[in-house]
Amino acid sequence: MDVMGDKATLFETGRFVQPSGEEATPDESRDETADAVETGEAVEEMSLRLAARAGDVEAVSVLGAMLLRRGDLDGAEPHLRAATAEGDRAAANNLGVLLHQRGYPDEAAGWWRVAAVAGSAAAAHALGRHRRECGDEPAAEYWLRQAAEQGHVLGAYALADLLEHRGDPGAEQWMLAAAERGHREAAYRLARALDHQECGDSRADGEADECGHDNGAIVRAEAEQWYRQAAARGHRRAALHLGTILERRGDLKEAGRWYMTSAKDGEARAACALGFLLRDAGDTENAAIWWLRAAQEGDGNAANALGALHAERGQTQTAERWYRAAMDAGDDNGAYNLALLCAEQGRTVQAEQWYRRAAYAGHREAANALAILLLQGGDTAGAEPWFSKAAEAGSVDAAFNLGILFAGRGEDAVALRWYERAAAAGHTEAALQVGIARLRDGDEREAERHLRCAAGGGSAEAAYRLAAVLDARRPQQPAHELGEIVHEKTECEEWYERAATQGHRRAQVRVGMLAAARGDVVEAARWYRTAAEAGSRNGAFNLGLLLAREGSEPEAAVWWTRAADAGHGRAALRLALVYARRGELAEGQRWADRAVSLGPGEVAERAARLRDALREELSA
């Protein structure tokens, strides 16, 4: 019979007695050398045999337990039967163990009952375990409770396990009792239960109770305590979870120590986690060693990590081999990563094949990537269901892509629903699209909310549009003379500047205009020039105006020419006036003609009058 838990020896079940006591207890570690131990045991055995021959019942019992522990069943049985016949309850317990090992569980149970009735907690535990294996849960509970109430650690744990299986709330009491007495599996299970309690707690993380305590923090601290106890006693999964807690908290050095402890005990997930910790610290060589160890033990995540490492180094064949190993380990990310590798190499057919494999297995990002691949190939009908499947599975990018797909078809209402779904999950561009749609509908309040989200997420266009919304609300400011600097910036100008620093050309022009309105000529010129050099015709035109006012008309004409060539009608009209004043009537007429064609209406009207006047002058 094995005891529930990670590892257990027959001696740890409590069915043996130790030479120095009546009841079976876990063996203690010794510092003596192997030879000294063997010598000591030989001397002790000889002493016990002499005492047994002299009729010492306890010596007979202890001698039988020693031989049983050594595996000498034939030698142990007569001694245990003799001591049992004399009423030694420890011998009856150990005789039950011997018979169970020989394959006679029912006869073993009979002797365990004898010992348990005589008060042996170890026998009560063994009998309870036996009755549970036979499916007799009421009897199992009775005997396990007898053991637990006598302070038997394994009995308390087995009773807790039985009660927990039945959903009995009394399980927690006995699990706690076993954990407090040093049972590592009980400590681990208590920690896991606390973890699940925190995850399922309806109270928001960090909310305080009536006494002002942070309930989430209390639960986490208690879970960590039990993980520590179990890990310190060699529980490898507890060490893994403890490492995870410490890593999340930023205690990377201690987290690494527990990961290593767990990994050395054979926990592949810990070896994988240790690899990531080393990689993040810049030690990719040692990271690869631990990933290799984990991957060889069947950890798909580690195999994927090795694949990515080799892909980064350009070793695509090795990367592909590890991605395939990840797939063999049941990790769908292996197929997805292999598809990405094929796509990067231009192997579109193979990429589609692996995307499909991962997508059919439920990999949402693979489904999204497959849809994009199909869309790029012109298969819109084939792309849509994969976008939908990915979006329904929680892919934010897929929800956004569905919005683009429906918007392209003119189904704006459906597109908006998908944009809103992606925006609610934090997708910046989706929030921008929702903001634009709300502005179009006249819902300025909702538009502002979404534009703020998108702008906060780094969208320059959202920052510009938010600034425009705020700009339209602010009261008219008094005009300032150029050169008269007033250092007052509104929120809208701050958003314009954020967009401008991100390279948004219209925002750059607007920041220049606001600077000019404040009288800050240098700042205005800087932003106009930045926008103009990036291709903004309005920036070039405004820079020309600023330069002309400062007396630099030749340089202004250069920027107006750039703006007019880009289709700016006002710039063309300005150039017509410049050349007319210079007496270059033909050039002036040419630019006037251009201004008429470019417009807008007011400009075209003025340019037409100027063109006609220049034509008359030329024909005079």
Structure notes:
The chain is mainly alpha-helical and 620 residues long. Helices cover 75% and strands 0% of the residues. It has 34 helices and no strands. The chain has helices at residues 34-53, 57-70, 73-85, 89-102, 105-117, 121-133, 137-149, 153-165, 171-180, 184-200, 215-232, 236-249, 252-264, 268-280, 284-296, 300-312, 316-328, 333-344, 348-360, 364-376, 380-392, 396-408, 412-424, 428-441, 444-456, 460-473, 491-501, 505-518, 521-533, 537-549, 553-565, 569-582, 585-598, 601-619. α14 (268-280) packs antiparallel against α15. The radius of gyration is 41 Å and the shape is elongated. Mean pLDDT is 88; it is low at 1-33, 202-212 and 480-486.
Concise account of the structure shown:
With 620 residues, the chain is an all-alpha fold. The chain has helices spanning 34-53, 57-70, 73-85, 89-102, 105-117, 121-133, 137-149, 153-165, 171-180, 184-200, 215-232, 236-249, 252-264, 268-280, 284-296, 300-312, 316-328, 333-344, 348-360, 364-376, 380-392, 396-408, 412-424, 428-441, 444-456, 460-473, 491-501, 505-518, 521-533, 537-549, 553-565, 569-582, 585-598, 601-619.
